[in-house]
Amino acid sequence: MTPLRPKGSLFVQLLTLTSLTLVAAWVMSSALLILLPPPAPDFYRISEIEQTYRGAPPTFTERRQLVLSHQDEPPRPPLEGRTIPDIRAQIAADLGVPVDHVVLAGERGPLSDRRVGRIIRDRAVQAGIRQDEHFLINPFQVGVRQSDGRWAVVRSEPRFGLDDWQQRVALWFALSALLMTPVTWIFARRLSKPIQVFAQAAERLGRDPKAPPLALKGPAEIGVAARAFNEMQERLQRYVEDRTAMVGAIAHDLRTPLTRLRFRIESLPDDQRAKYAADLDQMEAMIAATLAFVRDATRPGERTPLELSSLIESLCDEMAETGARAEAEAGEKVVLEGDPMALRRLFANLLENAVKFGGQARARVFRDAGHAVVEIDDDGPGIPAADTERVFEPFYRREPSRNRQTGGIGLGLAVVRSIARGHGGDVSLINRQGGGLRARVLLPL
Fold first, then answer.
1. Which domains does the chain have, with CATH numbers?
2. Among 14, 380, 392, 438, which is disulfide-ready with 430 (CB 3.0 to 4.6 Å)?
3. For the segment 69-107, what is each residue's pLDDT rounded down to a tens digit?
4. Bridge partner list, 442
5. What global pTM score does this model have?
6. Number of other residues whose CB lies within 10 A of the CB of residue 243
7. Which helix (H) or strand (E) holds 142?
8. How many Cβ atoms from other residues are within 10 Å of residue 290's Cβ?
């Protein structure tokens, strides 16, 4: 068994990946907090708000536009602050309305960072606002009661999409995710590769029982599973070899009593001797077929790339030279790895059965969902649905009355299924609509 060299525990690797992700997120968040300036809200002069009431709102390139709307109720909730009464009085005086007809509303919370207040003051100075000039910070609503009882409300236009500072933060997160992608890919590849190799080894065992043991470098948990897998594979191989050897030994030992029986029937009358001799001949044929089956099963050939269409065409040509009606339809080239001699025997048995019991054989090869499919049709009477699986049992003959010359020993289809399953596939018999039987062989690519 090839030794395994696990590299740490899967739990440790997952813990490391999670920790690195958390640390990277913390570093990115800290960098955004320290490097990016805090967002400064828009602010508006009182004169700009009054200009909107007069029907000529100013236009801005960086700030949101001011809009005027009418509603039945005054805006809520009212703003509170040291300068709010002065601002209300200034708006009322400039617009010529009573002070109690002016309402300032909005939700103003404490500034989250002193830098925000400093930025607002700097921007106010840059905009030419005097220290004694009043302004309002967005979001706000200024309501003035009209003569009809309704309220004219000025507010900033709602903005759709992201603000500038939100776009900067989103760009930072996108760049950070882009930088973390290679690291994530490397870790994911490192963790998934051993599991993928382990799955491939399990699938290969189904196609080739004598596949080499699994050699895997990976986490400790995968190493334990791989070691158990290799031990299971060895036990399966020993079990199959022991059972096959036992059957071969039994079949071989049966030849000795059969030989003694042949000597003993020589003294029987001619009519009885002929019947006993026929039975002994059939038993010897069955023993010979069993020994051949065991010999082929215990000596699997080397797996090599094989093109199925060419193999089927060559078998049909050989049968046609002997007068049999066998043909292969033109199809796509399908290549798989397999035992050439075993697969040749598999398809030869199916073609011979189609010609023997169905009059002729028509074969085709194609791909289907990662498998190579070979279908062989005949024009015979088919078989009952109850027998479509029983015919693959060793020594089973659907018509017991047939003798060895017409019905065979009963190992042909058993050999076919054994070879197909030894390659990780299977074979089935299907009654075709309109008559005839179809043998369908499925082999993984």
1. 43-162 (no CATH), 302-444 (3.30.565.10)
2. 438
3. 898 899 988 888 788 888 888 888 888 899 989 999 987
4. 373, 426
5. 0.46
6. 12
7. strand 141-145
8. 20
